[in-house]
Amino acid sequence: MNDIQMVDLKGQYQKIKDKVDARIAEVINSAAFINGPEVKSFQEELEQYLDVKHVIPCANGTDALQIAMMALDLKPGDEVITTTFTFVATAEVIALLGLVPVLVDVDPDTYTINAESLKAAITDKTKAIVPVHLFGQCSNMDEVMEIANEKCLFVIEDNAQAIGADYTFKDGTVKKAGTIGLVGCTSFFPSKNLGCYGDGGAIFTNNDKLAERIRMVVNHGMKVRYYHDEIGVNSRLDSIQAAVLGVKLPELDQYNAARRAAADFYDAAFAGTNKIETPARAPYSTHVFHQYTLKLNGVDRAGLQQYLSDHGIPAMIYYPVPLHLQKAYKDDRYNDGDFPVSEDLSKRVLSLPMHTELTKEQLTFITEKVLEFINK
Ligand SMILES: *Cc1c(COP(=O)(O)O)cnc(C)c1O
């Protein structure tokens, strides 16, 4: 049995090596490193895959969020609501732009934004909501869009973890994650569901005007070269990364299916114990399992993590500290106990190895070891 890894990028690469190597070599031979044809073709292929009018590639997922907020003309003091149980990037860019991050709690089953908390957090200063499609499943976008439309708020989807997931609205309409709100953001960090071999990101929108603004912001605020209409940033997807993504995008559905199959295996193995809650599958979203995250009931989490590690099985805690309790984001507005669901999750969650290359043998070994520890 091969070593078990949290994410097996090497194993995945071996299967597409010839194509990837050839396309990277092509980029190097052409010397079109920046804004080469690979970037344009990947952009168009992703627009088609997502069924969205505009994809604007950029340097990483954090930039994608920042650029979206810059292009929406959010001003210092404007409030932007997001969840406290997420990766820090979401709140980081809000704070960096001088906006006010307003944190809210998540749903105990899906770990995504809780509608009641969201409603309660809206003030006259609220301008935008950033739902995070955490661990590979969409937030409840029927609820989010209804609240946003009623209060005239922008919706910026943080889709770094759920690319390829399908959202089904109450009326039966189906859309890809990240194309539901006014603007969607994603990351191509290597371990994401669609990852490149370095940093990368993209912004999606169906709004022509906003797309034009975003294209200016990513490119130093210029439309005509060396004429700068506004203060922008430099954020590009480079051609080598676009070449890698061009090979991997056609595989994305298959990759997500492989993740789902691994999740099904885990679910079945843990169905018989009440010490483990397996990830909830929301009726409105497919789950693309960026992470497979268990909620433990009365299990010594650190002990389990150590036991697994002793048997060569990595397991990670996403996320050990909710943002309102992080040193950098501590704030008079928040106290310990303000977001009970997120605080409880941060103490009980554990993510098991999840990637496209897990074998039945590995999954059997992992689940056996987990059950061995919790039944001790
Ligand atoms: C990975 C991630 C980001 C940031 O993406 P980078 O490409 O690493 O900048 C933002 N939000 C969430 C939820 C993420 O998981």
TrEMBL record:
Single biological process term from Gene Ontology: polysaccharide biosynthetic process
Keywords recorded for this protein, A-Z: Aminotransferase, Pyridoxal phosphate, Transferase
Residues of the active site: 192
GO molecular function: pyridoxal phosphate binding; transaminase activity
Residues carrying N6-(pyridoxal phosphate)lysine: 192
Top-level taxon of origin: Bacteria
UniProt entry tagged with the keyword Transferase: yes
One Pfam family, short name: DegT_DnrJ_EryC1
Family: Belongs to the DegT/DnrJ/EryC1 family.
Protein name per UniProt: Aminotransferase class I/II-fold pyridoxal phosphate-dependent enzyme
Source species of the chain: Acidiluteibacter ferrifornacis
